[in-house]
Amino acid sequence: MPSKNEVEQFVEQLIAYGFEQTAPASEIEQGKKNYNKLSSEKQQEAYDHLKPHCDKYFKTDSYKNGKKDSYGYGICCDILGMCGMSGWLIFLIIVIVLLCLAGAAAAFWFFYYKRKMGGRDEEKEIESTVDTANTGHDISVETY
Questions:
Q1: Where are the domains of the chain?
Q2: pTM of the predicted structure, to 2 decimals
Q3: pLDDT in tens, 52-61
Q4: CA-to-CA distance for 40 and 66, rounded, in angstroms?
Q5: Max CA-CA distance within the chain?
Q6: What are all long-range contacts of 61-67, with beta carbons under 8 Å and residues at least 24 apart?
Q7: Exposure of 49 by Cβ count < 10 A (0-12 exposed, 13-18 middle, 19+ buried)?
Q8: Does the N-terminal or the C-terminal CB of the chain have fewer CB atoms within 10 Å?
């Protein structure tokens, strides 16, 4: 188990990099591994220590311009998971769900409703059994 000193060392090491500096991917991966080795209490402690620094980073031009190879992005977004889904991704999910619902409605209309109606668009008047002489369906006796 890492001691409190190790957690503080981990946090200080991450802060020392400078959040706007370009980060090699290997260092971010190593940071993820080190963070995941910590217990959940220690991870929460590291999160709480880094949150104010990440809040400052989120106000910088580096974050606003979408620079994903900086230490700040790697620490705050990749390691700690503070960055939520972007707006276009949420929009894309909503569009996909609506398309699925539209497809289900079209399938219901085509396969169930149209078949139930017998392919007719309008309801025909049902003939009464009293007047069966004028149905227009004559069966020839000669065919038997």
A1: 4-79, 85-121
A2: 0.52
A3: 888 888 888 8
A4: 29
A5: 106
A6: 62/19, 62/20, 67/20
A7: middle
A8: C
